[in-house]
Automatic annotation (TrEMBL):
Transmembrane segments annotated in the record for this chain: none
Classification via InterPro entries: PRibGlycinamid_synth_ATP-grasp, PRibGlycinamide_synth, PRibGlycinamide_synth_C-dom, PRibGlycinamide_synth_C_sf, PRibGlycinamide_synth_CS, Rudment_hybrid_motif
Family membership noted in the UniProt record: Belongs to the GARS family.
Keywords: ATP-binding, Ligase, Nucleotide-binding, Purine biosynthesis
Protein name: Glycinamide ribonucleotide synthetase
PANTHER family: PHOSPHORIBOSYLAMINE--GLYCINE LIGASE, PHOSPHORIBOSYLAMINE--GLYCINE LIGASE, CHLOROPLASTIC
Source species: marine sediment metagenome
Molecular-function annotations in GO: ATP binding; phosphoribosylamine-glycine ligase activity
PROSITE patterns: GARS (PS00184)
Pfam families: GARS_A, GARS_C
Residue ranges constituting the Phosphoribosylglycinamide synthetase C-domain domain according to the UniProt record: 105-201
Keyword Disulfide bond: no
Length: 202
């Protein structure tokens, strides 16, 4: 069985200026033009899932939402302006806005329940998050967690449970910080990949 995304990093070296321009010219803008032609313009997040082969973008899917876990890495590099951009989009003012990406790198590692994407148990206790200092360079995003009513403990309640995300001056630094955070999480029933970012770093 296939998993959902188990990690992400930004920026992705495969998305060169040429590949980005090709994706816009060949995929995104024609799609937007066709929606407008049909009288069904779209206002919101349009996530374009691409595969890049031989320097050419190929469309896999569209989603009317942010990608997961890509969103976590992107939000870390966008910061508070993400809210301004979404509000401008909702109000039809997006053309007036300028996106200012942080000149650094972000990497997300997904911690999943043991057994995912097959059958997995819910309710296992997750400890150690209080030992992770969260700031503009370190953040743990909750995707499948809950609080146990009896004692208030944090427990797993899904397949992909945590998105452990860090920023760094280099992708290697972001990766090392993210994995150092993962190692502080005390969750025996949790698993994660140790190779996120390997392609960009090899």
């Amino acid at each position: 069985p296939n998993t959902g995304g188990m990690g992400a990093y930004s920026p992705a070296p495969v998305m060169t200026d040429a590949v980005t321009q090709a994706a816009l010219d060949q995929i995104v803008r024609p799609c937007m033009a066709e929606m407008a032609r049909r009288g069904t313009p779209y206002q919101g997040v349009l996530y374009t899932g691409l595969m890049i082969k031989d320097g050419q973008p190929r469309l896999v899917e569209y989603n009317a939402r942010f990608g997961d876990p890509e969103c976590q890495a992107l939000m870390m590099r966008l910061g508070a302006q993400a809210l301004d951009l979404m509000q401008a989009c909702a109000e039809g003012r997006l053309a007036e806005m300028r996106v200012n990406w942080a000149e650094d790198h972000a990497l997300t590692v997904v911690m999943a329940a043991r057994g995912y994407p097959g059958s997995y148990d819910k309710g296992s206790v997750i400890d150690g998050l209080a030992d992770i200092a969260e700031d503009s360079s370190h953040m743990v995003f909750h995707a499948g967690t809950d609080r146990r009513e009896a004692d208030g403990k944090l427990v797993a309640n899904g397949g992909r449970v945590l998105g452990v995300t860090a920023r760094g001056d280099t992708l290697e630094q972001a990766r090392d910080r993210a994995y150092a955070m993962c190692d502080k999480v005390r969750w025996p029933d949790g698993v994660f990949r140790r190779d996120i970012g390997w392609r960009a770093l090899s």
